[in-house]
Design a protein that fits this description.
The chain is of the alpha/beta class and 173 residues long. It contains eight helices and five strands.
């Protein structure tokens, strides 16, 4: 079984994925980390040196490779991963893949991401919290349709990591 965590940046995919994998005794993979290893560069460096289109192509290839070559994994994706190319259609077509959208409120995402914006290539240029809120709102509107196609949707806004892991586990088993 492959459990693929989807959601906007800052929704907790990596943190929750790591804890969920421990609970299930599955391997954990973080798609961004896997890309950094294979490219020998950080995500911000890939964006600045080769651009977002190059990154999205590599991301699409890497997620398919991980799905095809892994057994029993929890995979944390990047926020935009399912929204580009045929990625979401691919994930939904795989019989052993379960997609879980970690849905978080605009307010929670804005607070989290404002503190982390310097490490995130898509938002490093945003200086004010209100501008970041507008940016996230626009992205959530654009990406919401794709995220909502997930097999499961878990609202994580007011939940602890433990509570989210339990909700996912209860939904799956």
């Amino acid at each position: 079984m492959k459990i693929v965590l989807l959601g906007y940046m800052g929704s907790g995919k990596s943190t929750i994925g790591n804890e969920l994998s421990k609970k299930l005794s599955f391997s954990f993979k973080d798609l961004d980390k896997e890309i950094e290893i294979s490219e020998g560069k950080t995500i911000p460096n890939i964006f600045s040196e080769k651009g977002e289109i190059y990154f999205r192509k590599i991301e699409n290839i890497k997620i398919k490779n991980l799905i095809e070559t892994s057994d029993d994994i929890v995979l944390a994706t990047g926020g935009g991963t399912p929204c580009y190319g045929d990625t979401m259609d691919y994930l939904l077509s795989c019989k052993d893949v379960i997609t879980v959208y970690l849905k978080s409120s605009l307010e929670v995402l804005t607070e989290r991401l404002f503190l982390e914006k310097d490490e995130r290539p898509l938002i490093t240029h945003i200086k004010e919290k209100e501008a970041l809120n507008d940016f996230i709102r626009k992205h959530l509107f654009e990406r919401g349709f794709v995220y909502s196609r997930s097999n499961f949707i878990i609202d994580v806004s007011d939940l602890s990591i433990r509570e989210v892991v339990k909700k996912i586990n209860d939904a799956l088993f």
